[in-house]
Design a protein that fits this description.
Oligomer: single chain
Radius of gyration: 22 Å
Strand order of the largest sheet: 16-15-14-17-18
Number of helices: 9
Distance between the termini: 25 Å
Number of domains: 3
Order of helices and strands: EHEEEEEHEHHEHEEEEEEEHEHEEHH
Structural class: alpha+beta
Largest sheet: 5 strands, antiparallel
Number of strands: 18
Length: 326
């Protein structure tokens, strides 16, 4: 098969705006796309993979009942928050989790074993890159400024940290994710201000991630794809949005910013540290113009950044997956 005819795998939920935008870009370039959600495996998607003795790699097919793709023809893989494999109800409940883990591992690990296939991003690397405490270590090594932080379940340690900082504090989740659905909507634990006077034994109930509050002129959602970086600015117009912009979208004004060379270089070092090529980085820019790193989501959303700023992020994804270099 010619290089131009080799397909890109897009692995994402059916309703995913970012994946839609990347697929549209690839379609405009006449790059073949085979899109599926891992939630359709093994019910609607069939995997057949062979590894003959002395063979350098796996061969076989993926078949969704309408189309097939040969594993050895895969050009690149865009892995974008797919669902987990769905196991048939006919499987006894005591084996269902085991079967789901088997399906998950088989599909992902066969794809990960395809030689020379670029990813955005390989989820094996994503899982490590998503760990927030380790991110602060990597960020510091890569040259970023980070907030002073504490993770503890000890109220005395939290009080000592507050005295040391002697400034407003926020508390944020160590691990992202949503709470169970309540009254028809999914809830999340947002970043919120905390009063050290309220620290008590309830801190012992779980781990708490406490940071100094960073004074912000505005925030930046920086999206990195390969060597390219895109800066979308968020100027918040309410106290609620200023604390966590995800909680008050109606009070955000969007724009763009040229990413300083030192920040762009540090972003590239950060990605290389984890062996990934994509990230959605959150920064505060202080009134003095200093960029402060908060965190990176290696599978973060970015469609809203492009939709509000016209930054060509989807095109950068398509370039990377197609193998186009600047």
């Amino acid at each position: 098969m010619s290089a131009a005819a080799r397909p890109v795998l897009v692995v994402a939920e059916q309703l995913d705006a970012s994946a839609d935008m990347v697929v549209d870009q690839l379609n405009q370039r006449n790059v073949p796309v085979f899109r599926f959600d891992t939630a359709t495996f093994p019910q609607q998607l069939t995997l057949t993979a062979r590894h003959p003795a002395q063979n350098a790699g796996w061969s076989g097919i993926l078949d969704d009942g309408r189309r097939t793709v040969r594993l050895e023809d895969v050009r690149a893989i865009y892995w974008r928050r797919p669902g987990r494999p769905y196991i048939a109800d006919t499987v006894p409940e005591r084996y269902r989790t085991w079967a789901q883990n088997q399906a998950d591992a088989a599909l992902l690990n066969v794809l990960a074993a395809l030689p020379g296939v670029p990813w955005i991003n390989n989820p094996h690397a994503d899982r490590i890159a998503a760990h927030k405490p380790q991110q602060l270590v990597a960020a510091t090594r890569c040259g970023f400024i980070v907030p002073r932080s504490l993770i503890t379940n000890d109220p005395a340690a939290a009080s000592d940290f507050a005295k040391q900082i002697d400034a407003p504090l926020i508390c944020k989740p160590v691990l992202g994710g949503r709470l169970p659905v309540e009254e028809g909507r999914a809830l999340m634990v947002a970043t919120h201000h905390v009063d050290p006077g309220d620290f008590d034994d309830s801190i012992r109930l779980t781990a708490h991630y406490i940071q100094e509050t960073v004074e912000k002129a505005f925030e930046v959602r920086l999206v990195a794809v390969g060597d390219r970086v895109f800066g979308g600015t968020l100027h918040t117009t309410s106290a609620k949005a200023a604390t966590d912009w995800r909680t008050d979208y109606e009070h955000i004004e969007y724009g763009t910013i040229t990413v300083p060379d030192d920040i762009a270089s540090a972003v590239r070092r950060f990605l290389a540290y984890y062996g990934i090529v994509f990230g959605s980085f959150d920064f505060a820019v202080t009134p003095a113009g200093q960029w402060v790193f908060f965190e990176n989501n290696p599978a973060g959303t970015w469609a809203w950044v492009e939709n509000r700023t016209a930054l060509p992020i989807a095109a950068a994804h398509a370039d990377y997956l197609q193998g186009v270099t600047e």
